Amino acid sequence: MSDNVTRAEICVIACAEIFDGAGEIMASPMATTPLIGARLARLTTEPDLLITDGEALIFADTPAVGGSAPIEGWMPFRKVFDVVASGRRHVVMGANQIDRHGNQNLSAFGSLQHPTRQMFGVRGAPGNTLNHPTSYWVAKHNSRVFGEQVDIVSGVGYDQVNPDNPAYGYLDIHRVVTNLGVFDFGGPDHTMRARSLHPGVTAEEVADNTGFEVAELDSAGVTRLPSDEELRLIREVIDPKGLREREVKPVETSR
After folding, report:
1. Which entry of 35, 52, 78, 236 is 20 to 30 Å from 66 by CA?
2. What are the TM regions of this chain, as residue ranges (predicted)?
């Protein structure tokens, strides 16, 4: 096994750790890197995770990205809403904008009435953030994504919470994983906090690429490297085609 680990593989490890302790829930990663991470978690620490083909079939096994596997159940669209409402799901979404309180935008740039650029719409972000743990994956960490405020709130952030409304009682923005580090919202007043920076990334680099102050940035630890067995699973079992390297700019780290 090579002693060189790529930044993409470190991001996969960080995404796998999103599911630590999840148990028997539905994992819904919405991009390649968190998808590899969820499957790595299932093969290592979280064997009870439910994973799907991205449409309606629940896998009994853990195939490679784009591969097939025996089917143990099905999840038609109407059933997804039951799972969302039950809270037994953890989605890892993308984001075009995230602010210091965890508000996420993937809908449009500009005002709601006169957007300058239309994107996906809010998709399931409002329901996701109010019903079950939600994390975000950002492959290119910069101040255009991490700005002072979002143009349109798609996923709900902590400053939107009405303590008198029980609908906000399950808000759990669990993690933000980027190509630079791992973050959560454990800073003052539920603001974004650095948990770890990837090997070779400095606090100054994160600060220069973030449009607001990140709590505990100078004291953040270092994201751990994958073990030999985790590297084998990533490279030979889950992602033998190396799709992860297309999503994260190549940076190698020696172990």
Report:
1. 78
2. none
Check pLDDT > 60 for residue 211: yes
Cα separation, 133 vs 164, in Å, equals 21
pTM: 0.95
Q: What angle do CA 104, 107, 109 make, to 5 degrees?
A: 90
Q: pLDDT class for 117, splitting at 50, 70, 90?
A: very high
Of the pLDDT bands very low, low, confident and very high (cuts 50, 70, 90), residue 1 is: low
CB distance 145 to 100 below 8 Å: no
- Cα 42 from Cα 6, distance rounded (Å): 21
Question: First-to-last CA distance in the chain?
Answer: 11
Percent of the chain beyond pLDDT 90? 87
Q: Compute φ and ψ for 72, nearest 5 degrees.
A: -115, 0
Query: CB of 52 within 8 A of CB of 26?
Result: yes
CA dihedral 89, 136, 203, 191 (to 10 degrees): -80
What dihedral do alpha carbons 56, 246, 17, 96 form, nearest 10°? Answer: -80
Range with lowest mean pLDDT among 141-145, 169-173, 185-189, 247-251: 247-251
CA 241 from chain centre, in angstroms, equals 22
Asked if residues 15 and 37 have their Cβ atoms less than 8 Å apart, the reply is yes
